[in-house]
Amino acid sequence: MRFIRRLWALNFGAMADVAEPVAAAMFPKPEHKTLRRAAVERILSNPQDIYKSILRGVVSYNAQPHLHRVKCPTLIVAGDRDLTISLALKQDLHRRLPHSELVVVPDSGHATPIDQHEKFNEILLSFLERVSAKEQVRVN
Fold it and tell me: Tens digit of pLDDT for each residue in 80-89?
């Protein structure tokens, strides 16, 4: 339903009609006020026709037939409160990517690198260290 409202706003409203609800969904907490304001400004800086084209491309692209070809280690970081992409879809992506690792971050939404930046960086660095260590063992 949120996505349909977003499409309606894009086709019949102004970018502000899109920016406010998207930013509110990404940063719903009172302490996210500054992040929410920055997200609104960032969204409003996009020309509406280009934003609409990008959204159309995101919705229509399907990488699933190619996932089995990904051979490198892949980290999937998911916020447990992401209202944009369901955890079930991320779990499915994890199942389809042969060398993937899924980490669910508690109390985070769609913008985990922003709303939980310290936790995200910790997860990413840990992943990179493990991958690097495995690569060192493989090379030696």
Answer: 999 889 999 9
Which tokens sit at 61? 């692209």
Buried b (16+ CB within 10 A) or exposed e, 31-53: ebeebbeebbeebbeeeeeebbe
CATH superfamily of 64-139: Alpha/Beta hydrolase fold, catalytic domain (3.40.50.1820)
> Is residue 22 a contact partner of residue 111, using CB atoms and an 8 Å limit?
no
105 confidence band (pLDDT: 50, 70, 90): very high
Q: What is the dihedral sign for C-alpha 130, 89, 95, 106?
A: positive
What is the distance between the alpha carbons of residues 90 and 96, in angstroms, rounded to a whole number?
10
| Cα dist from 19 to 7, 14, 52, 86, 138, whole Å | 12, 9, 12, 21, 47
Euclidean distance between CA atoms 41 and 15, whole angstroms: 10
pLDDT at 140: 57
DSSP state of 114: H
19-37 per-position pLDDT tens digit = 999 999 899 899 999 999 9
